[in-house]
Write a structure and sequence with these properties.
Strand 7, helix 17 and strand 8 form a beta-alpha-beta unit. The relative contact order is 0.08. By secondary structure, this protein is of the alpha/beta class. Helix 2 runs antiparallel to helix 4, helix 7 runs antiparallel to helix 9 and helix 16 runs parallel beside helix 17. Helix content is about 65%, strand content about 10%. It folds into 2 domains: about 250 residues, ABC transporter type 1, transmembrane domain (ABC transporter transmembrane region fold); about 250 residues, P-loop containing nucleotide triphosphate hydrolases (Rossmann fold), CATH 3.40.50. It binds adenosine-5'-triphosphate (ATP). It is a multi-pass membrane protein. This is ATP-binding cassette subfamily B protein. It is found in: Cell inner membrane. InterPro entries: AAA+_ATPase, ABC1_TM_dom, ABC1_TM_sf, ABC_transporter-like_ATP-bd, ABC_transporter-like_CS, P-loop_NTPase, Type_1_exporter.
């Protein structure tokens, strides 16, 4: 368990300090109790011998003082260790998940990750420090007492020695059952967390269906499952708990009977029996506490297992000699085949070139693979076969930070952090000057929004940007791309209707982003104006490239692009009519 913990947070110095401190406290406690023997032997004579007891009293006094000082020192050390362990573990987890393929982040795994970062990391550090110490005490105090007992009566010491392994065997069994129950309970708790996230996300749909307050049946089932698992766990662990308690109580009875028999037989003086009974109580008490601790320790071990499972997930492989800069900004997909894990392919043998400085419109029916192409270029996933190259280099050979720095992505569904507009922009470039921020805002037509808002740059956008409209959120996202000065920009143009003002602003901003000659732009396009302005069009259908060419020629050829273009224009006509009518 200790090795597993060390593997998770390799803080050898800290662990040794805490361990040594706790071990010293435990051994000192046992030895202090040992001073009782000479003291009682000296005092429980027909003529009490105070002179013989005095040095032992003095020794016990000094021991108590040292014990007190060590106990006081250990509190701040344990507190600091707890904080340090938690922070290190959380950082390790966050750094690791940042390198995982996006496909890993399913609803269930997101819930597990949330619990690993919050509950597990906190509990592991807390338990390692606050339960680890008492666990050391609960093991070392009885061990020291056995040693001390040998000095009094070897037969009684052997009895103490026999009780300990029997108790540990009973404890092991109880621990195993507690561990299984804890794992089942954690599984049920993770289900609840997953369903709770789902419940939050599905609120609009549930309310529309009149079920906002009752929740989903899946959520109710998860709660029932948790309750039942808890009950089952309690039932299962009751018998081993009782067995262990019986061993500990039985141990005391055995010591008492054996001591009385030796006393009656004249083989043990009364002073030694009294001292041995006090030692027996202190011997069995920490052993008794172990049953409480074992549950917590097993829970910690399970937590360690869960955190390790996240940390053991393979990130996307990195090249041993990663390329640290782009040598060009042309993009080439060559024979790319990719599926999201199931049997259905999202892309099949896709070959397409996106020349440096050009703007390409990616077009195709829903589900044809447009978003997948952009995800593979940004290396959110790795291709199953074929290659994606930027400036002639396979994206798998780049240092991942190169792609993060040189590619800007303007998603349709923009995620904003619950912070000010300024901070949401600074994510793209934390050290941007005020002038750079303002230039980016102007280019993205965000300045109009900022002028309208009373708090301007300091406006808080609300959770996930909920206080801004969809178009305004997109302008923030485009401003991020300008600020980042990325030489490759991947845009998912909104397919749904924006209000005319936002639509014009977003279109103008995208056009400006695409007009730079030193930028390669890919737009998943739905608007006739964007399609017309593109240097080339790549049409996808069911994961295959079906057309490549300039927009005018493709429109005249009457193929899939021409059909989609007409549909977009018709939809736009309807929207304009509806807007005018309103
Ligand atoms: N995360 C995912 N997990 C599993 N399958 C996915 C995932 N994302 C997309 N797919 C599937 O891959 C195929 C291509 O999807 P993709 O999102 O690339 O299409 P698209 O052309 O961008 O569609 P749309 O225009 O509707 O956004 C679809 O069949 C889709 O169901």
């Amino acid at each position: 368990m200790i090795l597993r913990l060390y593997g998770l947070v390799p803080q050898l110095g800290l662990m040794l300090r805490i361990g040594a401190l706790q071990a010293s406290l435990a051994i000192l406690q046992g030895l202090l109790l040992g001073t009782l023997i000479p003291i009682l032997r000296a005092l429980l004579r027909p003529e009490p011998d105070f002179a013989a007891a005095t040095p032992w009293f003095l020794l016990a006094g000094i021991g108590l003082l040292v014990y007190g000082v060590l106990a006081v020192i250990s509190t701040p050390i344990a507190f600091t260790a707890n904080m340090e362990f938690t922070a290190k573990l959380r950082h390790r987890l966050m750094n690791h998940v940042a390198a995982l393929p996006l496909g890993w982040f399913t609803q269930e795994r997101k819930a597990r990750l949330a619990r690993a970062v919050t509950a597990d990391a906190g509990a592991i550090a807390h338990l390692a420090v606050t339960i680890g110490g008492p666990a050391i005490t609960a093991t070392l105090v009885p061990t020291t007492i056995i040693g001390v007992t040998f000095a009094v009566d070897w037969r009684m010491a052997l009895l103490f020695l026999t009780i300990m392994p029997i108790a540990f065997l009973a404890l092991r069994r109880a621990g195993r059952i507690v561990s299984i129950a804890d794992e089942e309970l954690e599984e049920a708790a993770t289900h609840i967390a997953g369903r709770a996230i789902e419940l939050g996300q599905a609120q609009p749909v549930l309310r529309a269906a009149g079920q906002g307050s009752t929740g989903t049946t899946r959520m109710r089932a998860a709660l029932d499952e948790h309750r039942e698992t808890y009950r089952r766990g309690l039932r299962k662990s009751m018998l081993p708990d009782l067995t262990y308690t019986a061993v500990v109580m039985g141990g005391f009875a055995a010591i008492l009977i054996a001591g009385m028999l030796l006393l009656i037989g004249g083989e043990l003086p009364i002073a030694d029996l009294v001292a041995l009974l006090v030692l027996a109580v202190r011997f069995l008490e920490p052993l008794g506490n172990l049953i409480e601790l074992i549950g917590a320790l097993r829970a910690m071990d399970n937590g360690v297992g869960r955190v390790r499972a996240v940390l053991n997930t393979e990130p996307l492989p990195t090249s041993p000699r990663p390329v640290r800069e782009l040598s060009g900004i042309d993009i080439a997909l060559s024979g790319v085949t990719f599926s999201y894990g199931g049997s259905a392919r999202a892309l099949t043998d896709v070959t397409a070139n996106f020349p440096a400085g050009s703007t390409t419109a990616l077009v195709g029916p829903s589900g044809s693979g447009k978003t997948t192409v952009t995800r593979l270029i940004a290396r959110f996933f790795d291709v199953d076969s074929g290659s994606v190259r930027i400036g002639g280099t396979d994206v798998r050979d780049f240092d991942p930070t190169v792609l993060l720095n040189d590619i800007a992505i303007v998603f349709q569904d923009v995620y904003l952090f619950d912070d000010t507009i300024e901070e949401n922009l600074r994510i793209a470039r934390p050290d941007a000057s005020r002038t750079e921020l303002e230039e980016a805002a102007r280019a993205a037509r965000l300045d109009e929004v900022l002028n309208r808002l009373p708090a301007g740059w300091a406006t808080r956008v609300g959770e996930a940007g909920s206080r801004l409209s969809g178009g305004e959120r997109q302008r923030v996202s485009i401003a991020r791309a300008f600020l980042k000065r990325s030489r490759i920009v991947l845009i998912d143009e909104a397919a749904s209707a924006l209000d005319p003002e936002n639509e014009r602003a977003v279109s103008d901003a995208i056009a400006e982003l695409a007009s730079a000659p030193d930028r390669t732009v890919l737009i998943i396009a739905h608007k006739p104006s964007t399609l017309r302005a593109a240097d080339q069009v790549v049409t996808l259908d069911e994961g295959h490239v079906v057309e490549v060419g300039d927009p005018t020629t493709l429109r005249e050829s009457g193929g899939l692009f021409a059909k989609l273009y007409d549909q977009y224009e018709q939809a736009r006509g309807w929207r304009i009519m509806t807007t005018v009518d309103n």
